[in-house]
Write a structure and sequence with these properties.
This protein is 42% helix and 24% strand. With 334 residues, the protein is of the alpha+beta class. Strands 3, 6, 7, 8, 9, 10, 11, 12, 13 and 14 form a 10-stranded antiparallel beta sheet that branches. The protein has a two-stranded antiparallel sheet with strand order 1-2. Helix 1 packs parallel to helix 4. The relative contact order is 0.11.
């Protein structure tokens, strides 16, 4: 049996008294082991605490980065959408310019009209018929592709990963497509400009503005006549405006008719050359006369309600070799 002992003296500095503690070597080793274990546990807890603290700081940083990343992608998304919208407007504008300027060939009527005009009584479907649409159950199953997705953990950086993997890729594709379309449109506009330089006189004689300031109340095409109730071709555009509003010439030309017509009321017709002519009906006043040469933006008359009219407006027609075409294709400022 181990008889080794350790004696500890505790001295009180104030009273000078002493206390003696005698411990066997076994107890001393046991106390030392317990103290060592407690120190290790404390050190491990301290390390774990600082690890959790660092993790919390990292989570906050990732959350801020995720928010910034989402905001940046939203900005890029809006810019890409604006670019796509601008390209679509350029595409429409370029198409109109080509339609207006490319009229020196034999099939000019076909090139100046957009699509085939419907025949009398023909029904035009603009939307998918109700009986052909999917039922509610089918649509719900399709939506499950998005509903069943596991929520993303933004603190673990999964949201940033999702944005990086999906949104970034889709944005890159859209941007590359927009860049390619921009290059194609640039070349198309260059070709168009070169063609316009050669057709300057033709362009100045081709209608390309809205002849009166107002809003469209009836478009070109077949409609129910407000007088007979039958489906007939409305050969022009109706532009509602205040009575007396000026009616402008949309291009250079010569006045070929300036008088009263039973249907059109007070009517002005202008020959712009190249087979293109325009008509302006239901006016209250006529300010030009037959044979007068007019230029673009000259005032031809005033908006009125004469002839077979249901209210003050301008009836505007564009004709190619006598055939009415849709005037909206000759309005570039809309």
């Amino acid at each position: 049996m181990d008889k080794k002992k350790v004696t500890l003296f505790i001295v009180n500095n104030q009273s000078g008294g002493t206390h003696k503690i005698v411990l066997s070597a076994v107890w001393l080793k046991a106390l030392s082991f317990i103290c060592a274990v407690l120190i290790v546990i404390f050190a491990a807890g301290l390390v774990d605490y600082f690890g959790l603290l660092l993790q919390a700081m990292e989570n906050k940083r990732l959350k801020v980065e995720n928010a910034q990343l989402i905001k940046q992608f939203q900005i890029v998304e809006s810019k890409v959408s604006a670019l796509e919208n601008s390209l679509e407007r350029v595409k429409t504008f370029t198409s109109k310019l080509k339609l207006i300027t490319n009229i020196d060939s034999t099939d000019r009527i076909t090139k100046l009209t957009v699509g085939a005009k419907p025949s009398a009584g023909q029904q035009v479907e603009e939307y998918e018929p109700m009986e052909q649409r999917a039922d509610t159950e089918t649509l719900t199953k399709q939506d499950q592709v998005f509903v069943n997705k596991k929520p993303l953990n933004d603190q673990a950086g999964e949201l940033a990963q999702e944005v990086a993997d999906k949104d970034y890729a889709s944005l890159v594709i859209r941007i590359e497509r927009a860049v390619k379309e921009t290059q194609l449109k640039e070349q198309s506009v260059i070709d168009l400009w070169e063609g316009l330089s050669e057709r300057q006189s033709l362009l100045s004689a081709t209608p390309n503005i809205k002849p009166a300031k107002g809003w469209f109340t009836s478009r070109f095409g077949y409609r129910m006549s407000p007088f007979s109730g039958k489906s007939i071709l409305h050969a022009g555009l109706d532009i509602a405006a205040a009575p007396g509003s000026p009616v402008y010439a949309p291009a250079d030309g010569v006045v070929t008719f300036a008088s009263y017509d039973e249907g059109y009321g007070k009517l002005v017709s202008v020959d712009h050359g190249y087979g293109v002519s325009t008509r302006f009906g239901h006016m209250s006043q006529i300010y030009v006369q037959v044979g007068q040469r007019i230029t673009k933006w000259d005032v031809l008359g005033a908006v009125g309600n004469t002839g077979r009219s249901t209210g003050p407006h301008l009836h505007y027609e564009v004709r190619i070799n006598g055939t009415p075409v849709d005037p909206i294709n000759y309005i570039l400022d809309e």
